[in-house]
Each structure stands twice: as structure tokens, then as C-alpha cells.
């Protein structure tokens, strides 16, 4: 049974929360961490409900509502809500732990405790929609989003569900940023994000975001693309990647030359971008290449932005110049591959085609 | 007493994230729950913790909260009688 991406929703470091836009007004940063461009939450969430929501929940709610509205699916038609997150609501987790330490394990308030678990986002969205179906959260570092998508795909293919709301979310908080600066995972000095790929330095520009999609076994008028396949790998050497790509594509009767555009998760980390270079200069040397982390920044579920971008490109049948990496032209892309990894681990391959 | 009421209003707004409410909008006798500020059961727990942490008041019987948290005025009255800090 095919799986369709019927709608999308995004809150990111770019103005992506409005689905009628497609990177027309890109924001260029000169920084080491990027915060989201937040919509007016009052347009999406009643103030009484919003006051107790952490940032990750707010941006996920907006993203999920955007996707639900676009799909035109009634809330009671959603069979499952599946979310991927690397860090959950880490902001409230940090505050809760700080309270435990600061107050000598006394005076702990309920709100921060409620929001300090990773599955709060999926739970809050379900509460808001009144969805009593399957509710699951994958916490799997930088393949958390892909794990959620894979679960949804299998449920839809097996006929266990018709419509599933799938998403990925991660929020930035001070302590997390500080620790990752200390261990060199964040770039030491601010960089122009538009040229981060050429920074020649270690680490990445960190960011945050929420990306939600309705995946269905039935194609809706709003449909963006068909999700053909998704696969994850924990550890691969650079030499193993091309063979894994070939094998993955062959499962769908495809060769590298059949891919009209490939999306790479380049984040400008000189230590690990070689994984992408190997494919860019090898299997996909003559293929149109696209990148996105100069716009979205790096976070555990940044691949959600890549998924959003691929969906947009296929539906609109055009690649915006700001994400087009090489000079190979692309005219009416039918089949796209996304390859993402973070620090040489948690690799993912996602295959989409026009429907 | 009026200083304590002012302090309570500020704490309620801050600790319960009532971003759209200003101190001057909360009348001393406004009901905190239901109509009025519209607080709920989670807020009640937050207020119980606040009494303990900031004023040294432990509520042995949670049912007491219904009368204590009726309004800022009733809260201030209870705190001024029972506070240990």
C-alpha cells in the first residue's frame, strides 16, 4: 500500500510556518546557534493553554495544526501520532533538575515535571486534538525523526492506520548549548550561515525546529509526494555509504542515475562532511544536488527540514536557487533521495517520488 | 497587608505564566478559580508549593485550599496568620 505525504508543517530558523511561501525571503545569520522564527502563537493556541507550554510544544502544535489544516483531515480521523525528538522538552527538564538541586529536592512544581518527559509533545498534541489512538515518541538521537516516519510507514503499509500525524521536534536551551560548545560540537566562532558549508572548521551551527506531516494510505488533493522508502543505519564508514545507497535504491528498482535530485545534510563540519562529499563527487556527480542546513541549522531532527524541503520541491516542481548546491540543472524532479548523518553516525536514506 | 497582596499578585502572574494578565487587573476579591482568573487544579498545586516554599506554610489538608485560594484577599489573610518566613 503506498504512503502519501498529504501535508506539511514547519517552524524553523526560516519563515517556513506559512505553507504558501517557499524560501522566497531567506534569513541569513552570522552566529553559532539559530533560534526559530516564531509565528504568533495566539493565532494557533488559546492563551490559557499556551501559558503552560514549553517552546518545543508550542512550535510542534503550530506545525501539527498547519499540517492538519492543509490535509483537510478531521482530527478524529487521525489514527496515530508519532513524534521523533532527540532531546524532548529539554528546557523544562533542565529547569526541573535545577529546581531539584536548588531547592534540595523540595518544592517541586508540577508543570515542569509534566513537561520534562520526552513524550510530552506527542501527548499534548493528542490532548489538543482529542486523539486517543496510538501515541508514540522515538528518542533516537539524529534518526529520531526517521524512526517516527518508518513506524508510520509500516503501519500504513500494513493497513493498521489510514492517517498518521508524524513529526520531529527539538528546542534549544542554554545549558545544552554550553555543553556542546565545550565539547566542540558547536562552531567556536560565528559563521555566515549561507557559506557555512565552506567554513573549513569543526562543529556545526546548532538550531531548533518542529516539522510535522500527515502521512496517509489515501492520496488527498493537498498531496506533496509519495514516500517510497526510508532506512536508517547506526554506524557506517565513508567507504560503505555508496554501496548502502546502491543497495537501498535497488530495493525500489532504481539506479543512482534515476534520482533527479539528491538532498544532502551538509552542516559545514569539516570533520564529517566528507560523508556527503563521497556521494557528491561519486554516485551523484551528475545529479542535481540540494542542501539545507545553511538555512535550518543542525539539530537532532533537522532531517525533518530536509523532508519538508523534498516534499516542497516535488510538489512545486522547482528547486530554489538558495538550496541548489551544484550546477546540474533539474527540471521537474520526479524522484528525490535524502541522505543525512550527524558526526558520522545515525545515517538515513529517504526516497520520495512525485505522485 | 496591601504589600502582601501586591506581592501575591506578582507571584501568581509569574509562577503561573499568566503572560496576558497585569497586576492591576487582578482585584483583591476576584475568584482565582473558575470565573475570574480561571485557574485549574495544576495551578492549585503550584500555589500549594508556593505557600510552602515562600511562606513556610504546609497545608495538611488539601481541602483547605478551596477556601484559602478563593481570592488574593483570602490568601493574604491566611498567609499573614500562619507564615513562618
From TrEMBL, chain A:
Provenance organism: marine sediment metagenome
GO molecular function, one term: 3-oxoacyl-[acyl-carrier-protein] synthase activity
Record bears the keyword Transferase: yes
Protein name stated in the entry: Beta-ketoacyl synthase-like N-terminal domain-containing protein
GO biological process, one term: fatty acid biosynthetic process
Gene3D superfamilies associated with the record: 3.40.47.10
Keywords from the UniProt entry: Transferase
InterPro entries: Beta-ketoacyl_synthase, Ketoacyl_synth_N, Thiolase-like
Domain Beta-ketoacyl synthase-like N-terminal: 45-210
From TrEMBL, chain B:
Protein name: Carrier domain-containing protein
Record keywords: Phosphopantetheine, Phosphoprotein
Keyword Phosphoprotein: yes
Keyword presence, Phosphoprotein: yes
Domain Carrier, residue spans: 2-83
Amino acid at each position: 500500500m503506498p504512503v502519501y505525504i498529504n501535508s506539511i508543517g514547519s517552524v524553523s530558523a526560516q519563515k517556513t510556518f506559512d505553507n504558501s511561501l517557499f524560501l522566497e525571503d531567506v534569513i541569513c545569520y552570522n552566529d553559532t546557534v539559530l533560534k526559530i522564527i516564531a509565528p504568533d502563537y495566539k493565532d494557533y493556541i488559546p492563551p490559557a493553554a499556551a501559558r503552560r507550554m514549553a517552546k518545543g510544544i508550542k512550535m510542534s502544535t503550530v506545525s501539527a495544526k498547519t499540517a492538519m489544516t492543509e490535509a483537510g483531515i478531521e482530527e478524529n480521523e487521525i489514527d496515530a501520532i508519532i513524534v521523533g525528538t532527540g532531546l524532548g522538552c529539554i528546557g523544562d527538564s533542565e529547569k526541573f533538575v535545577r529546581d531539584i538541586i536548588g531547592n534540595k529536592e523540595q518544592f517541586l512544581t508540577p508543570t515542569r515535571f509534566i513537561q520534562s518527559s520526552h513524550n510530552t509533545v506527542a501527548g499534548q498534541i493528542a490532548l489538543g486534538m482529542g486523539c486517543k489512538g496510538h501515541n508514540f515518541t522515538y528518542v533516537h538521537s539524529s534518526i529520531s525523526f526517521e524512526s517516527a516516519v518508518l513506524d508510520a510507514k509500516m503501519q500504513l503499509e500494513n493497513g493498521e492506520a489510514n492517517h498518521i500525524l508524524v513529526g520531529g521536534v527539538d528546542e534549544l536551551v542554554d545549558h545544552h548549548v554550553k555543553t556542546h560548545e565545550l565539547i566542540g560540537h558547536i562552531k567556536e566562532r560565528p559563521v555566515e550561515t549561507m557559506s557555512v558549508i565552506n567554513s573549513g572548521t569543526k562543529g556545526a551551527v546548532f538550531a531548533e525546529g518542529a516539522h510535522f506531516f500527515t502521512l496517509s494510505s489515501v492520496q488527498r488533493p493537498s498531496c506533496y509526494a509519495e514516500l517510497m522508502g526510508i532506512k536508517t543505519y547506526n554506524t557506517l564508514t565513508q567507504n560503505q555509504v555508496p554501496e548502502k545507497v546502491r543497495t537501498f535504491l535497488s530495493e525500489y528498482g532504481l539506479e543512482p542515475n534515476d534520482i533527479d535530485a539528491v538532498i544532502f545534510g551538509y552542516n559545514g563540519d569539516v570533520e564529517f562532511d566528507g560523508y556527503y562529499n563521497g556521494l557528491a563527487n561519486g554516485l551523484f556527480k551528475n545529479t542535481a544536488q540540494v542542501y539545507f542546513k545553511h538555512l535550518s541549522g543542525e539539530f537532532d531532527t533537522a532531517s525533518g527540514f530536509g523532508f519538508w524541503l523534498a516534499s516542497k520541491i516535488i510538489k512545486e516542481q522547482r528547486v530554489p536557487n538558495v538550496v541548489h548546491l551544484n550546477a546540474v540543472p533539474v527540471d521537474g524532479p520526479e524522484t528525490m533521495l535524502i541522505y543525512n548523518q550527524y558526526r558520522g553516525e545515525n545515517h538515513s536514506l529517504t526516497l520520495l517520488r512525485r505522485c | 497587608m496591601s504589600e502582601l497582596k501586591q506581592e501575591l499578585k506578582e507571584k501568581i502572574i509569574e509562577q503561573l505564566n499568566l503572560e496576558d494578565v497585569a497586576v492591576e487587573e487582578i482585584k483583591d476579591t476576584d475568584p482565582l478559580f473558575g470565573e475570574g482568573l480561571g485557574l485549574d487544579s495544576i495551578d492549585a498545586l503550584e500555589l500549594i508549593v508556593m505557600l510552602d516554599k515562600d511562606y513556610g506554610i504546609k497545608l495538611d489538608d488539601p481541602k483547605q485550599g478551596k477556601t484559602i485560594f478563593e481570592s488574593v484577599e483570602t490568601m493574604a489573610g491566611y498567609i499573614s496568620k500562619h507564615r513562618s518566613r
